[in-house]
Amino acid sequence: xxxxxxxxxxxxxxxxxxxxxxxxxxxxxxxxxxxxxxxxxxxxxxxxxxxxxxxxxxxxxxxxxxxxxxxxxxxxxxxxxxxxxxxxxxxxxxxxxxxxxxxxxxxxxxxxxxxxxxxxxxxxxxxxxxxxxxxxxxxxxxxxxxxxxxxxxxxxxxxxxxxxxxxxxxxxxxxxxxxxxxxxxxxxxxxxxxxxxxxxxxxxxxxxxxxxxxxxxxxxxxxxxxxxxxxxxxxxxxxxxxxxxxxxxxxxxxxxxxxxxxxxxxxxxxxxxxxxxxxxxxxxxxxxxxxxxxxxxxxxxxxxxxxxxxxxxxxxxxxxxxxxxxxxxxxxxxxxxxxxxxxxxxxxxxxxxxxxxxxxxxxxxxxxxxxxxxxxxxxxxxxxxxxxxxxxxxxxxxxxxxxxxxxxxxxxxxxxxxxxxxxxxxxxxxxxxxxxxxxxxxxxxxxxxxxxxxxxxxxxxxxxxxxxxxxxxxxxxxxxxxxxxxxxxxxxxxxxxxxxxxxxxxxxxxxxxxxxxxxxxxxxxxxxxxxxxxxxxxxxxxxxxxxxxxxxxxxxxxxxxxxxxxxxxxxxxxxxxxxxxxxxxxxxxxxxxxxxxxxxxx
Length: 602
Prior knowledge:
The protein is of the alpha/beta class. It is 64% helix and 8% strand. The strands form 3 sheets. Strands 6-9-10-3-11-12 form a 6-stranded mixed sheet, with helices on both faces. The chain has a 4-stranded antiparallel sheet with strand order 2-1-4-5, with helices on one face. Helix 2 (30-62) runs antiparallel to helix 3, helix 5 runs antiparallel to helix 7 and helix 19 packs across helix 20 (567-582).
């Protein structure tokens, strides 16, 4: 059968409920599922036929001593075995494709929605939950779809055996027809208990993963503050709670699996005992006795499928419920209309200014004049970072770009022209060229200019293969100052119309900072640039400085004029000057509250 299933990710997932999501995974590859169900049905039904053939061989060939009949039925039995082996192989291959397809569809749906959430992601869901979904829930969901193959075949096999048994004895047929549903009923309450325990276990597991992520990410800070043991104790306590919940899941699972093996075996014994008594009394032949035993033994497999299918479906619904809950999260309203730019794009959406325009933040009073280097200085770095978040549209605000509110402009247009360069932005694993290149390949001359501006030549020269050298995730094989300069290189290579840089030089020494400040002013001449800093070395190179007090503009002007006219600014800059001279090369900046833009980058 030709595979005409849709490419994974080509259709939008249905996330109104866990059941609908699983059904979407089935219908997205309906022909493959139909093929798997067909192979599974033929394979399972085929396992019910050998007992019938064996009974005919005994009654028509072995018992009366008819060799041709015995050989003929033996040949049929051999043919059934070969055919069933081939069907089993096809079933297994098809079900593997079904599982892989479901895995990729869920992964792509989760990744696509992660990108759609953007800056809202860290505020809506923990990293641990995303990891749990991407590793654990995806595998459970894909395993659930396996039941579409043998599950359908188990129902058909049950009916075929009932018909074959009816030809032997109506009493035995009645026992089979009533006994199999009874087995399913006995397991039902355990499946409900498992679903509750599995849900609680998954929730605790994602919470523990989130705590571990936070612990590892802040290990250096915790070590400096002496808080490692406190967080380690919390982790151990949560781990013990997760272990107890895991024991509850294991207890329910063990009973289900034990009953999945034990109940069919007891059922086989009961049917065989009844058939043996009937054979002893002459009600059925020896061949029919063998057939009844074969039917009952073969039924062990579909009955086990019934129980295992219920077990897989229960766990699959729990996992799908977590995926659905994640897919229901909506981006912040700051993300606004995410429509393509260009003529006619985004019905009802405003158009971005065609050229450079003033950026205004009414909440703070900051105005960014196009073509200039503007610095934001505040005693609390979080205040100036919050302004950047609003101007970069990472937070809800009434900020405007020209005469248009930022939140009315299609997000893609904003992201293409305004870049927030965060001091804590992620550095992904790859070669140095890939790390700084972003989403586009850059010419060698552009890379050299950006590296020169950020004073990062020593980083390139110090690595064994230069730009081709590997960089570990988060730049773990680099110092804090080197990571910061590489983030600046990446931002400069993006060459945005508006660059909003948060503390771009806080982790470097005073000499490096002074050089970077001068080169940044030159490299961005004629382009709009905003930096947040209290360093006099950087403030002195700015065309204009906005001095913020309690998140509001208290004064605007050149650095030296503010020094003369604003005592509070003078005290702030003097403190920044002391910090700048105390910095060591490659140092790590002091921690500060994370802003929404920083959280989105993480």
